[in-house]
Amino acid sequence: MTDFTMEKGADGVAVITWDTAGKSMNVMNEQGFLDLEALIDDALADDGVKGVVITSGKEGSFAGGMDLNVIARMRDDAGDEPARGLFEGVMGMHAILRKIERGGMDDKNKGGKPIAAALPGTALGIGLEIPLACHRIFAADNPKAKIGLPEIMVGIFPGAGGTTRLVRKLGAMAAAPLLLEGKLNDPKKAKTAGVVDEVVPAGELLDKAREWVLSEPAIVKPWDEKGYKMPGGEPYHPAGFMTFVGASAMVNGKTQGAFPAAKALLSAVYEGALVPFDTALKIEARWFTNVLMNPSSSAMIRSLFINKEALEKGANRPDAPDQKVKKMGVMGAGMMGAGIALVSAQAGIEVVLIDQKQEAADKGKAYSADYMDKGIKRGKATEDTKAALLDRITATTDYAALEGCDLVVEAVFEDPGVKAEVTGKVLEVVGPDCIFATNTSTLPISELAKASDSPESFIGIHFFSPVEKMHLVEIIKGKKTGARAVAKALDYVRQIRKTPIVVNDARFFYANRCIIPYINEGIRMVAEGVTPALIDNAARQLGFPVGPLQLVDETSIDLGAKIARATKAAMGDAYPDGAVDEVIFWMEGEGRLGRKANAGFFDYDDKGKRQGYWSGLAERFPPADEQPDLTEVQHRLMFAQVLEAVRALEEGVLEDIREGDVGAILGWGFAPWSGGPFSWLDIIGTPYAAERCDQLEAAHGERFACPALLREMAERNQSFYRRFAPDTEAAA
Ligand code: NAD
């Protein structure tokens, strides 16, 4: 069975329908391209066909994009000359789309048949690149549809002509957010942006497209006409010059040069703008190949597309019946509880939000009201959706309201006594089938579970702040947590459309365990006299959203001091972070608590806007005369985290490296271009990683000691994904 079929109408319009078997949305694969080309050839050669409409057999969508596994396969199958294989494969795609675009015209732009794209809804990636090659794009007025080119989000860029065509259609300036940020629009906004040509009522989509095809329209693309001028100007045109200089600065400002795809995209656009269209396509293909050959792109695709999706679909879900949540309790209506109530109610779950006082519970619910008000202002919500959402949240102090809940998430103060009391009171009301989850960030789940007489139904569901923005949820199994509790947590996370990782119970679980050494390494360097700007900028140039010192300011020094004190108390003499405490406790004493105090590693103005680094820091910890080089600082920051991730794997806290990688990127913004800590170690190679560990240990101390697992892998020149990826035999 083929994904594309064609029906030739009596009116002379051939309708090609894309309908990928077994998928809810169309995705393009190798065979799909061949099938599409064969049908186009047939239609162009058939004198009875006046024109073509390409549409989709899926309700509400045209296509979700390219099956990214295909791209991974393209490179892996390309033999000894992967770059050549990739380039030729990409040029093959160009040839098919160019055939559509030329519609059978001769060199003089004579003859030819109009080809329209009719999009019932969502059209992403190749699902928009094909329409861009058509002569007119009709989109159904489907406000839920998303139209755009999101490739940059997974470390590549639109490489089937989308880059070159969009820039020529809209101009570099207007195309920039669509290409560089992967911005998606609904059909109406896509029309305003100039991406689609017409938005029509869904029921009239095919008729309108047919009508247009039969209207004998002009089909020559502007860039195939003599004297074509790019909207906004080419690079050496005065206006174009400003655009390109600005775009280059913007891209480097945003990416800090850490993301190869953004740079390659910009080069393809700039160089392509200087030459005729067909040469521009070739340039696009070369840069696309360059990106696909970069290990960063395969690592990003693997973590941010393939594995993220696998985890969301329940790759590590135990076998248990559907555990979808219908009614849940949220204990504590503070910062976290309010956010948890919001995202749960958004998912259609009935929420009972409990706090000690009615005002506190109401305040927690008001958070959802404020959130929806902002949505209404931005046109993303309506008074009706707001009312329906608020209707689902009952703010109360009355535990009896929890009756019938099948999940309770506790987010009260980080105090074992308070948590135990709340757990006991909840369990008196809810039935035996209810799963009880704690959102603690620091307390061991197995200890908290002692407050319950059914520890198999007790689990950690650890959200990140702000809940509505952060995509990761860490699920923590206590020693006695049962399979149904894990399934419940996973089904719940799926309902609220976040990405789960499942880890075992150990100090700070997984994410915080790795973030803390990152922050500590930054602070340690301050104590050594490394300048703060070097520390934070080194991190940002690695692709971290904020450097470690700025991160401390955002999360607050007193939180750091509290964690340090608790860790010290728990670890006793083995506590390794004295040098860090010297800085933290001193800052705390100086009242430099971070952004919330308008004073931290940075100064802030009256409005809370961040200024430069605080000069008092340099007085207390003077910068050393000789500063370390950038790579040394970067490696200290990277190894501090990745070695912790390796230890978490070694100790069985992490059971799946995919979770380690996806969790790192989504949880704390770990250098996304690298694909995560394990992918990064694979990129640099385990032998080199072990060698660097030895050097860093000699220079900076034991915390960089090479974990036994990494040492063993280095000796055998193994990679993490060969040894630990699911479904692969352990490589010898
Ligand atoms: P918060 O202080 O903002 O909120 C706690 C709420 O719990 C308060 O409204 C308080 O009145 C309420 N509360 C206290 N005792 C109660 C009781 N006996 N019954 C009912 N309500 C009670 O704290 P938060 O930042 O929302 O943190 C809550 C939990 O989430 C903590 O365990 C914390 O470790 C964890 N957590 C916090 C973050 C974060 O970034 N803040 C991130 C992940 C997890």
TrEMBL record:
The keyword Cytoplasm does not apply. Residues 328-505 form the 3-hydroxyacyl-CoA dehydrogenase NAD binding domain. InterPro entries: 3-OHacyl-CoA_DH_NAD-bd, 3HC_DH_C, 6-PGluconate_DH-like_C_sf, ClpP/crotonase-like_dom_sf, Enoyl-CoA_hydra/iso, FA_oxidation_alpha_subunit, NAD(P)-bd_dom_sf. Pathway: Lipid metabolism; fatty acid beta-oxidation. It comes from the Bacteria. GO terms for molecular function: enoyl-CoA hydratase activity; long-chain (3S)-3-hydroxyacyl-CoA dehydrogenase (NAD+) activity; NAD+ binding. It catalyses: a (3S)-3-hydroxyacyl-CoA + NAD(+) = a 3-oxoacyl-CoA + NADH + H(+). The keyword Manganese does not apply. Keywords: Fatty acid metabolism, Lipid degradation, Lipid metabolism, Lyase, Multifunctional enzyme, NAD, Oxidoreductase. SUPFAM superfamilies: 6-phosphogluconate dehydrogenase C-terminal domain-like (SSF48179), ClpP/crotonase (SSF52096), NAD(P)-binding Rossmann-fold domains (SSF51735). GO terms for biological process: fatty acid beta-oxidation. Pfam families: 3HCDH, 3HCDH_N, ECH_1. Residues 509-604 form the 3-hydroxyacyl-CoA dehydrogenase C-terminal domain. In the central section; belongs to the 3-hydroxyacyl-CoA dehydrogenase family. This is Fatty acid oxidation complex subunit alpha. The gene is fadJ_3.
